[in-house]
Protein 1
Amino acid sequence: MGSLSQTDIEQIVKKHLLPSNHFIYGFADLRGLLIPEFREFSSGISIGKKLDDTILDSIEHGPTREYYEHYREMNLALEQIIDAICRDLRKNKVNCIKVSPTVVMNSKEFKPYLKDLRYKLSHKMVATRAGLGWIGKTDLFVSKTFGPRLRLASILIEQNSNPGNRPIDKSRCGTCDVCADKCPAHAANGRLWDIHTDRDLFFDAQKCREQCGRFGMDLFKKEIRICGICVSACPLGRIRS
Ligand code: B12
């Protein structure tokens, strides 16, 4: 059992999320949703870092080198943030584990992941449970604050938490199909997400991955997978910018 109240934990998290208007965060009750490896944890902290609007607007028809660099910088920045938060939490005897923004290629986790393109923790699930947003038609997490224009990371903690926001159980995209229409891989079939609708029923992740690979090869002449057209296209991200 941890020795800090949720308010204390929140203070620690907030201290590391600066400038605060570039971030969203929230607490999620994850009981019953985690794989056995994480059995000691019952809650999650979802952290989202806003992507740069100018860079996102410029990838309407395909990724750019600038977007690729941005995405790497975001991964690094988020990694440092979750590291620092976990260090502070552990100093205060809160048992926690950070989950990185991305899967490192050729790590021991990479091979099993490749089979079905599912990682051991979905950041989007932590984020919907924290009530920060929902899943869109191209399987992006669409936040209430930045639309899908954000990069996510998570921290799992042992103690129970009180999500300040109600978890969001279904899509709020309605009849909007912009991301699905713009997807160059035609990976989405237009069906709306809810917590009982698995990814594979509305989104073909393999098709998406292949297209990301083609873009990466065209741009860098090597095995880099990147796209971002759906992230750029979402009207919710655009309205805000
Ligand atoms: C595997 C993976 C891929 C694969 C498969 C993508 C996919 N959609 O599953 C490939 C290589 C194709 C890919 C591509 C891209 N990816 Co990617 N990828 C991941 C990774 C590592 C794991 C995702 C995973 O496990 N998927 C398996 C399915 C089952 O889970 P899911 O898609 O995350 O979400 C499902 C569950 O969360 C469920 N769910 C949600 N809430 C709840 C609640 C309950 C109670 C339940 C039961 C279920 C549930 O609903 C979703 C649909 O079923 C995550 C990082 C991470 N650890 O989460 C990044 C991540 C999803 N990728 C991301 C991005 C940005 C991309 C790209 C745009 C690449 C780029 N940077 O240019 C593309 C576009 C992808 C797209 N439109 O989905 C971001 C998404 C940000 C966002 N706004 O959503 C993530 C979160 C990385 C990050 N740190 O921000 N990616």
Protein 2
Amino acid sequence: MPALSRPILSVSNLIAGYGNTSVIKGIDFEVYEGEIVGLVGPNGAGKTTFLETIAGTVKPRAGKIFWRDKRIDALSVMARRKLGIMLVPQEAYMFPMMPVKANLEVSGVLNRDRDTRELMAYVHEIFPVLKAREKQIANTLSGGERKMLAVGMGIVSSAKLIMIDEPSIGLAPRLVTKLLENLKKIKEDTGRTLVLAEQNVKILNIADRIYGLEAGETRFCDRTQNLDESMVAELYMGK
Ligand SMILES: Nc1ncnc2c1ncn2[C@@H]1O[C@H](COP(=O)(O)OP(=O)(O)O)[C@@H](O)[C@H]1O
Ligand SMILES: [Mg+2]
């Protein structure tokens, strides 16, 4: 259970989109430290646009975004990244021509107060494949390995809020279960906060709370244990 104190991220009446079209139509959203929040909704609901607006790659048309007490909606992507807000996009990014190990080491540059080697050892414990493949060039990793590397980079860089856009997409069912379990373990071991945009119903197994998005609006928001799983799966999930 997360400590229900002040939210670390607080979004009010957010409106954002592309050109003249509003895709996000007035969303209120809160995230508390140390919780996993699932953002579910059908294709085109606005999940990606919403995460990108928080990360800073999409500029909001109206509304406010706070990181603790600091208003951040006019800050650059890098300024938000330095505060500890990180987005792992659907096509997980990295330094494609560098080996896996170097990708992790470079991420340590963003981390001023912790031992990069210690954090890398933790990442290797959670994702042993990143140790086994440390000399491999990053863009030759499989989709699942790439996602693990991106999450590992977030851990090494001490990102406080790691938002992952569709962590399960493209992964075999067994790997989905494993990755989601690992994300829960990361939350429990390190106290990192996670926001996961998902269409896979397995998100209900690890999220503390769920926001249901449809056509750019919040349809519901509740603790996962209060939700009717089959109803959520039918209305808001791809599978
Ligand atoms: N770069 C873009 N330019 C114009 N429209 C976009 C862009 N990205 C997404 N959209 C539109 O915004 C809507 C929401 O998309 P998206 O945020 O990707 O939803 P989701 O991630 O829930 O599938 C869709 O109608 C999509 O076509
Ligand atoms: Mg999306």
